[in-house]
Design a protein that fits this description.
By secondary structure, the protein is an all-beta fold. It is built from one helix and 36 strands. The two termini are 32 Å apart.
């Protein structure tokens, strides 16, 4: 049942959690060549979302915060600078991800509504080291990762990484992935540091997971797990690129410059969407496949920020002037929809590969420039204040086949104000108001206007709460939030468009830190009250994907009688999830339990960690929502293990 073991060699250099200015926790950075100490529970600063290496915990993720996408909101940062990812960098480049909401947004200049996704770079240090991690799981996956840190000179260190992954998924699909990456640290002069990086990945073999669309307003019958029904010719190939550089320079006493330029792209040689539509209670369905010609999604983004810092008495002040920009292009469409005939949930589709008959593609481009000015102040024992104003110039050009290009533009003035006030030496109150402009992305795969670019939208957010330092690093955060945005989803004709406005109001809580020297706990809860206001017939009051209650608790315990051993567990629960625009269908509540352990030891004098984990311990059954009225099965119980060795 449990096929475990993983082999990894990892280098010297220590993983650290750096303390940031503004009394805020910095991302828990993991240096290149040092991975045996990675532990998301022990390195998390709160329960809102932390990913360290291969493991993530918390209430939120890079794709969903407070019911919305921070990526769409333009709230992704890499090394603290604005970044517009087409896809997120891998562990070779970014060793950690922290979700910042509420009080932890202080210290992140110019935030937008939802929350900030803070990516930390895996920067090579001054010591040589290497890491190799090997992973297997009970689905049959085999993964090996390697990271090397090489100090070449006193001012130049080079990091080299790679990954070979043959993944077998819980829905029966397979994905083969190969990646190589370089990251360097250059210090050409005192006070100047340049960190360039590049990651190139190639996927020669990817099977598109089946999307199940029931007939009418209903859930599908129980879906098969570890089974893929798609035709064997339905295999996607793609390349992914993330590259960029971060410059930090102390220009003069009290003056600092930070700049970053980034390129993110994905190119598909061809793309497939595997559908079983008209799914009925008896398991009958109709097989369809959407075939795309070569697709390209690319974005160039970056930020230049000049900061003036000064102090006076118990006060520390910072004034920021910044320019942010992005230039994104998409080439998509030309789709061919092929009906493969009647099918069932449990029989493979054996239809022959059709002859492609693609049409002309759409070419979209959008550019955005933002000028920003902001102030941050910190008064010891009193509180913090963050103010910002941004003027954004957004332009989109939509190149539809056979017609003249359509251009749209907007130039909003955006604001942010966040404050934290010390009520006692351990208790602080915080509050904030933020407005934003965000790209609403493209229509999803199951929409009639699939991949169509959507207009930019205006957003706003209020939040407030309390942060209590219980003792040492044990913290409790209680907060309220109110986020409003235009509501996009499928209409009766399955066209993805704006249907009204959505307002997410809720309560969030985080309790995290060492309860004892041997037991660390990270626990959180979100109570959400989402509401849609729409004049369109058939649109319910709750947005698709809405979950009223989310709870999670993770713990890591090191027993005193077993040196080097730790045990961990995670329990998560989500209440029912709204599944259709009409609100007539909901996915039942889901509860998952994971258990695992680590054994830290020496292997030929090198630090090593063996990690074993069982996910979905009780084999919970259910559905994942993949857009309005579209579903995938929850994966079953799985065991995985890996070993990491630092040299």
């Amino acid at each position: 049942m449990i096929r475990v073991l993983t082999l990894v060699v990892a280098g010297a250099a220590a993983s650290v959690i750096a303390a940031a200015a503004q009394a805020q926790d910095a991302p828990p950075l993991t240096a290149a060549g040092s991975r045996a100490g990675e532990n998301a529970v022990r390195q998390a600063g709160d329960a809102f979302g932390t990913t360290i290496g291969r493991e993530g915990i918390g209430l939120y993720s890079a794709s969903s915060v407070r019911g919305f996408s921070p990526r769409a909101a333009g709230n992704v940062r890499i090394a603290g600078l604005y970044f517009d990812p087409v896809f997120f960098p891998s562990d070779r480049i970014s060793g950690s991800t922290v979700i910042r909401v509420g009080p932890t947004v202080l210290g992140s200049p110019f935030p937008s509504p939802t929350g900030v996704v803070d990516l930390g770079l895996r920067v090579p240090g001054d010591k040589a080291g290497a890491s190799i991690l090997a992973n297997i799981d009970s689905w049959g996956s085999r993964i090996i990762e390697a990271d090397v840190a090489l100090p070449i000179t006193d001012g130049f260190s080079l990091g080299v990484g790679g990954q070979i992954a043959h993944e077998h998924m819980g829905d029966g699909t397979r994905d083969y992935y190969y990646e190589g990456a370089l990251i360097a640290r250059l210090r050409p002069a005192p006070g100047i540091e340049l960190v360039p990086f590049v990651s190139l990945a190639y996927t020669p073999f990817h099977e598109a997971a089946t999307i199940y669309v029931p007939a009418g307003e209903a859930l599908p019958p129980r879906l098969p797990r570890n089974f893929w029904n798609g035709p064997r010719w339905q295999r996607t190939r793609e390349t992914e690129l993330n590259a960029g550089a971060v410059l930090s320079a102390d220009l003069a006493p009290g003056w600092a410059l930070k700049a970053g330029l980034f390129r993110s792209s994905v190119a598909y040689f061809e793309d497939y969407t595997n559908l079983l539509t008209d799914v009925r209670a008896d398991g009958s369905a109709r097989a369809q496949v959407i075939i795309d010609p070569a697709l390209l999604f690319v974005s160039t983004s970056g930020e230049v920020r000049l900061t003036r810092s000064w102090t006076g008495g118990n006060c520390a002040h910072q004034l920021h002037l910044a320019v942010r920009g992005r230039d994104a292009r998409r080439r998509f469409g030309g789709t061919q929809l092929v009906d493969l005939g009647p099918a069932t949930l449990t029989m493979p589709v054996g239809a022959p590969q059709p002859v492609a008959a693609f049409t002309e593609q759409e070419r979209d481009r959008f550019r955005q420039w933002t000028l920003a000015a902001g102030y941050e102040g910190h008064w010891d024992g009193v509180g913090e204040l963050s103010l910002g104003v941004q003027h954004s110039d957004y332009r989109k050009r939509i190149g539809l086949p056979g017609v003249a290009p359509v251009e749209t533009s907007t130039r909003p003035l955006l604001f942010n104000a966040n404050i934290a006030a010390a009520l006692t030496s351990r208790l602080a109150a915080y509050g904030g108001y933020v407005t934003g402009l965000e790209e609403s992305g493209v229509a999803p795969e199951q929409a009639a206007n699939r991949n169509e670019a959507l207009p930019a939208i205006r957003t706003r957010q209020f939040d407030a709460g309390l942060r209590w330092t219980v003792a040492g690093n044990l913290r409790l955060v209680l907060g309220l939030f109110d986020v409003s945005k235009p509501y996009f989803n499928l209409d009766a004709a399955r066209v993805f468009r704006q249907l009204g406005e959505v307002r997410n109001r809720g309560f969030e809580a985080s309790f995290s830190g060492p309860v004892t020297p041997r037991l660390t706990v990270v626990a959180g809860a979100v109570l959400l009250s989402p509401r849609v206001t729409a004049d369109v017939a058939g649109v319910g009051r709750r947005p698709v994907g809405a979950v009223a209650q989310t709870y999670t608790i993770s713990g890591d315990w090191r027993p005193p009688w077993l040196p080097g051993v730790s045990f961990d567990a995670k329990l998560s629960h989500t209440s029912s999830r709204t599944a259709t625009v009409s609100n007539l269908v909901s996915i039942p509540a889901l509860t998952f339990a994971d258990i695992g352990g680590r054994y830290r030891f020496k292997l030929a004098g090198s630090a090593a960690t063996l990690r074993v984990q069982v996910e979905n311990l009780f084999d919970s059954q259910g559905y994942e929502l993949f857009g309005a009225g579209a579903y995938r099965p929850v994966w079953g119980r799985a065991a995985n293990a890996y070993i990491t060795i630092d040299l």
